[in-house]
Amino acid sequence: MTKLLLAVWLHIYAAPPVIDVVYPRPAPGDTIPRLDKVDSNFVFGSVQPSDAHVFANGYPLPVWTNGAFFAFLPIDWKSQRYRFIAVHKGDTAQTTVNFTTRLEALAAPAPNIIFPTTVEITGPNMRNDPRGTYYLFPLHGTRAEATGFTKGYWKIPLAPGRTGWMEYRGATEVKSADDRQPMVISKIDVDTAGGWIEVRLPIFDKPLFRITDERQPDCIHLEIFNVISKIDRINYRSQTDFVREIYWEQRDDRTLFLDIRLAGPLWGYDVLWREREFRLAVKPPRLIKRHLQNLKIVVDAGHGGEQDGAIGPRRYKEKDVNLQAALALKRKLENLDAGVVLTRSEDISISLTRRAEIADSAQADLFISLHHNALPDGVNPDADVRGCSVHYYRPQSRDLAEAIQTEMVEGLRLPDEGVYYHDLAVARLTTMPAVLIEAAYIILPEQEMRIAEANWHDDLAECIVKGLKKFLKDRNK
């Protein structure tokens, strides 16, 4: 009788397994997921009960103790479908995820224009090739000569053998006549302004330019295009000793090169256009008497609002994890008498440009952006080290990146993925040492489980604080 009652109870109350597929997932506005045209890709999600067996298109998937599953599988482009089956003690469940290819962006048609012509640049980035990377960053409203149009990009000569490419939407033809003859710079003034040192070049219009900076020796290289030097005077006013010396060279008949040598490590720089002057504003090193005390640090919680960021197999959202980590870091920094500005303290959307503007408006000393990582389609997670990493753009930020990475590797018990030079907007647009931290891969089950631990945010914040202290100690030497 007891066995009969148990069988009846199991029949009535035992539930089939439940499958939750997180990826592939549709992007906002799509009805089904769109994948890159790759041979293999990852699938992940979770199943309950956690001891169920899961299959995708016939392949068995590893299942973690919390029910998360993750696998890198061949893509069946013939059916364009994943069929998931879960089996638990004789009960089964299944679900199907259909997918298609990503839409390729169509290049803008060539405008009906006679070249060469003059265009006004409103876009923020110019590439070194239509398929290339960001190369220079023009001031809004800069005028330049365009000599052609290819694959949705304006072709803009910079110097002999060098060309810039501006996306179609980033420039507009100027109808009025405009003579693009080289401009002349006859002098340089070096002066102070609000804690910055400005290198000022009087010139009648905004030029195209490219800036690079380096360490050992500490210097800034400035190339200005379509310019002729007539410089016979450089005026170094009082309290500008950090700009030790400026050397100029006419690299070709339209390119002026300035080698701006500094007396120590650069803290940051900005480019301004004021009173018909091109100004390179240089921030001298911050004098730090006590570690972190009275420093102003901007803490940026990545994503937010409609931008979830990455989502883990158990549906932990990156935007939420980033914010919790930012709040934990804020508490630790304020306990050390540092001033902290959050780019967001709630679940709201903020543009990348606005995040940098918040840091600049606050006159911050340091910028820390917090993220948790994912992978693009087609990348095998087992093909390389996947763990914590720190990303920087300007050379003066590399020491900060390395210091934080060292502490994270030691404190978080995750693989050391390394430090990256990476052209990321928040690291490039900010005018102080800035880094973007990828603390862990939220899409990998074992790392999502670590992120879900109660002490994760405090542990991460403590590692960052230790890294900041190390960076500041080294800079003070």
Count of structural domains:
4
Radius of gyration: 27 Å
Low-confidence stretches: 5-12
Please state how the strands of the largest beta sheet are arranged side by side. Answer: 30-29-31-34-32-33
* Morphology call: flat
| The CATH C-level class name of the largest domain | Alpha Beta
The CATH topology of the largest domain is: Aminopeptidase
Break the fold down into its secondary structure elements and pairings.
Elements: H1 2-13, E1 18-23, E2 34-35, E3 40-48, E4 53-56, E5 59-61, E6 68-74, E7 81-88, E8 91-98, E9 100-101, E10 117-121, E11 126-127, E12 134-136, E13 142-146, E14 148-150, E15 153-159, E16 162-167, E17 171-173, E18 183-185, E19 188-193, E20 196-202, E21 209-214, E22 219-225, E23 227-229, E24 234-236, E25 243-252, E26 255-262, E27 268-274, E28 277-283, E29 296-301, H2 318-335, E30 339-342, H3 352-361, E31 366-373, E32 388-392, H4 398-412, E33 416-421, H5 425-429, E34 434-441, H6 445-451, H7 456-476
Helix pairs in contact: 2-7, 4-7
Q: Keywords for this structure?
A:
SH3 type barrels; flat; 34 strands; 477 residues; 5-stranded mixed β-sheet; Immunoglobulin-like; 7 helices; 39% strand; 6-stranded mixed β-sheet; alpha+beta; 18% helix
